[in-house]
Q: What sequence folds into this?
């Protein structure tokens, strides 16, 4: 699995090597933001577009039919081979004060086989995207568009659909404020979700995109992007919703609490102060 990069200047060369692109259950990809003088499209004009599902058709059925067709085109010896997987290659467990890269390394090292990772960490999970190919086998769900607030309800839905699998929700703090009520429902249903709040106490994506567009935010604009006056006490919010919750500031604390959370059933919340 290689995730399409967030920035269009990286996504374009990533996808440029394909002569044709097949769509099933999804529209053509575009960038999250539009940039003056730049294109929001992530595919070149000369790349062929092929949609294999029709309106109302189950895209899984369309992809299954395509896979069967491709398999039948190969020799039996090729069909008998098992799935191709990347070699497990976890990063060394970090220590000390947390930052986004250390957070991602801890999660990658401890996530169990066959877990479901719901990623709405936004700017805090770039490192995870780079190493996701070499961690333990898992399902990966991320934003389906540029909106925010999807992570916690998506994690709840995944847990209800697959109650025998652990769900790890890597969740930006600003985005979490849009759908925080999902925590109560997780507690109400006993959903098997570990929520990891990336608490950088700002809407960093907005600040970053303003700077990329050439409009560095001034003091008044920055005041609207920060969520630190007062700080949001995520551990208290979690417990108030009926979810056991703690706050951590070091890699060692995160590793200890995440190990504990993964052993337990039901929901758990860890605020990761970055």
A:
């Amino acid at each position: 699995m290689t995730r399409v990069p967030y920035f269009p200047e990286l996504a374009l060369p990533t996808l440029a090597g394909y002569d044709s692109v097949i769509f099933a259950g999804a529209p053509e990809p575009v960038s999250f933001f539009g940039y003056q003088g730049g294109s929001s499209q992530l595919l070149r004009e000369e790349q062929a577009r092929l949609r294999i599902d029709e309106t109302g058709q189950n895209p899984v059925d369309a992809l299954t039919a395509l896979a069967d067709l491709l398999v039948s085109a190969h020799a039996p010896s090729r069909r008998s081979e098992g799935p191709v997987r990347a070699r497990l290659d976890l990063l060394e467990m970090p220590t000390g004060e947390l930052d986004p890269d250390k957070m991602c390394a801890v999660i990658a090292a401890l996530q169990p086989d066959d877990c479901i990772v719901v990623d709405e960490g936004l700017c805090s999970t770039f490192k995870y995207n780079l190493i996701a190919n070499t961690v333990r086998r898992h399902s990966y769900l991320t934003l389906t568009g540029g909106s925010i607030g999807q992570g916690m309800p998506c994690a709840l839905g995944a847990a209800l659909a697959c109650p025998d699998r652990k769900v790890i929700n890597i969740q930006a703090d600003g985005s979490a404020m849009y759908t925080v009520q999902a925590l109560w429902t997780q507690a109400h249903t006993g959903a098997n979700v570990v929520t990891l709040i990336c608490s950088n106490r700002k809407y960093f994506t907005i600040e970053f995109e303003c700077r990329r567009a050439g409009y560095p935010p001034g003091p008044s604009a920055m005041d609207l992007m920060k969520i630190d006056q007062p700080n949001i006490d995520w551990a208290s919010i979690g417990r108030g919703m009926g979810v056991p919750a703690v706050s951590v500031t070091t890699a060692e604390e995160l590793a200890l609490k995440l190990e504990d959370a993964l052993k337990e059933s039901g929901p758990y919340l860890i605020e990761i102060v970055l």
The chain has a mean pLDDT of 91. The first helix runs from residue 8 to 15.
